[in-house]
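User: Please predict the structure of the protein below. I'd like the answer in structure-token form so I can feed it into my own downstream comparison script.

Assistant: Understood. Taking the following sequence of 80 residues as input:
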Amino acid sequence: MLLLNEVIDVSPGNALYQRLGDQAFSVIVLIGIAWVLWKRQIKLEDRLTQYLNDDRDKMQGVIENNTKVMERLESVLERR
């Protein structure tokens, strides 16, 4: 029986330390999960920013090409 009490360690003084340890472990795990999710969010934000910048550049090129086409069309129509 004494061996069982030592293995389980149910003394009242150790119960407090065990609870504090369990809560500290839970807090550390939650902080770890939050850190991983925060890093993933930063990566996603960077990818989204890069995608938006690339898309903005492509659209600017399309707008410039359309402007040139419209100017050529206007010049052809004015010549007639």
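That's the full token string. The two ends are 110 Å apart (CA to CA).
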